[in-house]
Amino acid sequence: MTTAVDERDDEPELEVPYWLKSSAEAASAGFWRMLRRLPRLLAQAWRLAWESSPRITLAVVLLQLAGGAVGAIGLVSVVGVLDGLLAEGPTPERVRAAIPSVLIFAAASAVRTLLSSAATAAHGRLSPLVSRAAELRLLELTTRADLAVFDDAAWRDTMYRARDRGTFASQSLVDQAIELGTNVIALVAAGGVLAVLHPVLLPLLVLAVVPTAWAAVRSARLDYRQRLRLTSLYRRRYMLSDLLADRDAAPELRAFTLREFLLAEVRRLLDTETRAHIRVMERQVWTTLAGTALGAAATGLTYAVMIWLLMTGRMELAVGGAAAYAIGTGIGALSQVAFTIRHLYEEGLYFADYQAFCALARQHAEPDTAGTAPRTFEEMRLDRVSFRYPGAEKLAVDGVSLTLRRGQTVALVGENGSGKSTLAKILAGLYRPESGTVSWDGVVLDDYRPDSVREGVAVVMQEPTHWPLTARDNITIGRYDRAAGQDDVEHAARAGDAHDFIVELPRKYETLLSRHFTDGADLSGGQWQRLAVSRAFFRDAALLICDEPTANLDARAEHDVYQRLRELAEGRTVVLITHHLASVRTADLILVFDHGALAEQGDHDTLMARGGLYAELFTLQAEAYSRSS
Q: Transmembrane residues, as ranges (predicted)?
């Protein structure tokens, strides 16, 4: 009988994607290659720590060094203790002879404990600072990236991996580097004592831990390679799991009885993950067993050599006792070093993902030009503008040339997929053309900072984001640089027809708009749409772009919104994207798109007289309304 997680040889879900081949090669690195990579990892870790807080980083290093020096003094004092206790003469005299060394050992232990506590406290302050710096860097680079790359699946996978483990790896890399430093200092102290006591014991000590280190690194590599192969699968499963538990998706999930279908898909993905985990776990167990067995044999050899040295008179008994203590300390330190190197190497691989994404984000960052765009313009011109989404064969916008003037109301119409929304994003400065230019009053927008261009644009999305902020903040984030008095906020809310429902909320304008938090409230789709329109009014921009702004509104509210948009158009340029062609009859200019190209342009009467695509679409809608009435 088979189980849900039986082995299968064919796992297409686990093939490493082509864009992660370099990471796969890094994950396949051998033990010695890992050791060669170690200095660079340590340098990166300490650089991160230094950038986060030079003062605390310096304190950690000094405390570690001091602790190691005191530890070495403690080890050396063991020889004095054993010399006194094993010397000839009455017991009281031997005890008295050992007392100074005992006091030194006790004092060294106490001081080392204090130094270790101080180092731990400094480390505890440094670690969250590193995590904070790494996360902020990731978010800053992500939000600076060109919007078009978010349509690239490879980009999303790389971003997911950087966010999933990369940020944590930044903190963990510093933690492991500090841990490694602590253990290496302890190891150097033990090794120095052994080298003084008898040189042959030092290489044997290293030999005792090499197998354990090999096993630890190989186990880390196996775990990382598995996560590498499961990246896309993880992302898909989390996405489906979120939908199964999401409030907004819950009605459609039940209405279309999707529960069993989606559960089956999640179950399939989980089965694939489980099989992969079991295979890796089994290989890790055998690797650890082999490393432990070899390490135990090498440890036995070390003690056998020490016994031989004692029996042949090549080592005094007191020195042998001290050597045994130092060997125990050294093996413990070496084991910790091997364990830490394993984690350092593993986190280094994840940190490499973080760095790779940061480099990719910088590569796709929007241009950082010095020019600042004016807040208004008289004329906006597009000259043979084309745009293609990442990985797409066809152009989404194909050679569009047009001119928009201040005070115009311009409508973009066409069938689904005709390029209307893509062109609107180009007008808003969200997408950069693949070819052609966009200019304000004769100045190409490439000469301006992208953010400064967008400060002169307000956008009402078809599906506005439900920001988990107060109702007031949801309006004022449209101009965070503007001091917002309550009168200004209410004026914008009334203009967007949002004031009436806002004052009915539990805390009115200070109500948090998210049911995920205590005393939070949620809005209907139409109310979110009105809030988005209010935000556009508050932004007070030269160019207003509305992508299906009334999609979630009833007929009366739709009429009111369009009336307010016409009022807002005074002194501004308004671009409307809509499928409701009756709403654009009064537009100054109607642009008709077909397969990414500008097929027709003119006012309503001109286009109807032409009898082209616009006339066909308008007539079809009019006939539909006539039949329904």
A: 56-82, 102-122, 285-311, 317-339
